[in-house]
């Protein structure tokens, strides 16, 4: 399918498995070109709290080190690092990584902001309608989103809840999914509505100042 395919806008939004040759079973890991080991560990382990679970040479280039971090649920984020200095920004464009998003505990949301500020990392906080997000940058200028759900959503029902919220958004004629669409989806699916107490935030656009 190309970007000009007229069917692209008509693709159904549904949690049902598509009729494809096979189906993935989850995210195993994501690998990023990093700068150096010290700066990478300082940000991802010492600030974000991800355990460094494996360190070994890059199998394709032993002159580099391959770092493996546990993002918190057993899913892995890895970096190829060498002796490169940390960069100040990322190049955009097709195929580039726009940002990485990690979940944080809603009860620790304000502590996360305080920790970023103490570490000298600027951040913005936004109410994204169906979740709250903190945006900051890592040592290489890559945008890092730290999000938390407004409501309790079981992991095995997340896709179903979002698809139902999409259905309610379309029926409402809204441009974006809002709090009421998410809450309505949870209610319609017969799940318990448990709302988290999160700080007020603007619905602005943008990443990090």
TrEMBL record:
Residues 1-24 are annotated as: Disordered. It comes from the Archaea. The keyword Oxidoreductase applies. The keyword Disulfide bond does not apply. Residues 26-149 form the VOC domain. InterPro entries: Glyas_Bleomycin-R_OHBP_Dase (IPR029068), Glyas_Fos-R_dOase_dom (IPR004360), GlyoxalaseI/FosfomycinResist (IPR050383), VOC_core (IPR037523). One of its GO terms (molecular function) is dioxygenase activity. Keywords: Dioxygenase, Oxidoreductase. This is Catechol 2,3-dioxygenase. It comes from Natronobacterium haloterrestre.
């Amino acid at each position: 399918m190309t970007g000009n395919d007229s069917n692209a806008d008509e693709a159904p939004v549904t949690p049902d498995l598509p009729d494809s040759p096979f189906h993935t079973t989850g995210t195993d890991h994501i690998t990023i070109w990093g700068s150096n080991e010290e700066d990478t560990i300082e940000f991802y382990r010492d600030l974000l709290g991800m355990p460094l679970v494996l360190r070994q040479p890059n199998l394709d280039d032993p002159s580099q080190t391959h770092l493996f971090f546990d993002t918190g649920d057993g899913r892995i984020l890895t970096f190829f690092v060498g002796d490169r200095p940390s960069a100040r920004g990322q190049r955009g464009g097709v195929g580039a990584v726009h940002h990485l998003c990690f979940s944080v505990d809603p009860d620790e949301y304000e502590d996360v902001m305080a920790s970023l500020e103490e570490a000298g990392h600027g951040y913005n906080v936004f109410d994204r309608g169906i979740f709250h997000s903190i945006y900051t940058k890592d040592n290489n200028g890559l945008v890092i989103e730290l999000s938390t759900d407004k409501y309790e959503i079981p992991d095995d029902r997340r896709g179903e809840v979002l698809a139902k919220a999409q259905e309610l958004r379309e029926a409402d004629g809204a441009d974006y999914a809002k709090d009421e669409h998410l809450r309505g989806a949870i209610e319609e699916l017969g799940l318990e509505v448990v709302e988290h107490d999160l700080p007020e935030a603007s619905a602005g656009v943008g990443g990090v100042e």
